[in-house]
């Protein structure tokens, strides 16, 4: 988040504050699963749910546009809970209850999840095989995001630049 603040300060300024322990405990109770420690730590620093007035009920997931990349969103706890309860792959052999989505695009057809058992990061895409263990941990995933933001800040990322303090995807 410090790299986002450094390279895209206007985008960073739009982000809400942290979740509370009470919010996380209530969500865990409703979902019937404990959040992995890495995810809990992230949410206690960065709960990226949109304000209620900005939530679009016609889309599965919504968040702050353009971060971590064009068309996808890091999910706040409310959005995670909603997608967890209504995941397009749930009810079949392609989705496991211990997978908690933390990043998605608007319709929930693709995104990334953290395995609540061991913290590994996987990726789903409706119509394609689910990938488990894409990253060993949330920290490894965020290392890749930090590398991308560093390249964007240096002008060395072909599909994204910064204009007026905001990430601009081409």
Please provide a written account of the structure.
By secondary structure, this protein is of the alpha+beta class. The protein contains six helices and seven strands. The strands form two sheets. Strands 1-2-3-4-5 form a five-stranded antiparallel β-sheet. A two-stranded antiparallel ribbon has the order 6-7. Helix 3 runs parallel beside helix 5. The longest helix has 16 residues. The protein is globular and about 45 Å long. The mean pLDDT is 88.
List keywords for this structure.
alpha+beta, single chain, 7 strands
What's a quick, concise take on this entry?
The chain has 6 helices and 7 strands; from the N terminus they run H-H-H-H-E-H-E-E-E-E-H-E-E.
Strand content: 15-25%
Strand order of the largest sheet: 1-2-3-4-5
Helical content class: 25-40%
Number of strands: 7
The CA-CA distance between the termini, in Å, is 22 Å
- How confident is the prediction overall: mean pLDDT? 88
Could you outline the blueprint of secondary structure elements for this entry?
Layout: H1 2-7, H2 9-14, H3 21-31, H4 37-45, E1 72-74, H5 77-85, E2 99-105, E3 110-115, E4 121-125, E5 131-135, H6 138-153, E6 160-163, E7 166-169
Antiparallel strand pairs: 1-2, 2-3, 3-4, 4-5, 6-7
Helix pairs in contact: 3-5
């Amino acid at each position: 988040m410090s790299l986002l603040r450094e390279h895209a300060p206007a985008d960073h300024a739009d982000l809400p504050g942290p979740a509370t322990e009470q919010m996380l405990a209530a969500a865990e109770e409703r979902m019937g699963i404990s959040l992995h420690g890495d995810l809990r730590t992230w949410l206690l620093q960065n709960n990226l749910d949109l304000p209620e007035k900005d939530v679009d009920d016609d889309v599965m997931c919504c968040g702050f546009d353009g971060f971590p990349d064009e068309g996808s969103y890091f999910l706040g706890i409310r959005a995670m809970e909603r997608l967890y309860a209504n995941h397009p792959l749930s009810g079949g052999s392609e989705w496991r209850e211990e997978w908690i989505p933390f990043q998605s695009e608007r319709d929930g057809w693709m995104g990334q999840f953290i395995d609540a058992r061991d913290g590994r990061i996987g990726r789903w895409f409706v119509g394609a095989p689910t990938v488990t263990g894409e990253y060993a941990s949330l920290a490894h995933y965020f290392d890749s995001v930090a590398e991308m933001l560093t390249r964007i800040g240096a002008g060395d990322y072909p599909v994204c630049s910064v204009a007026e303090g905001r990430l601009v995807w081409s």
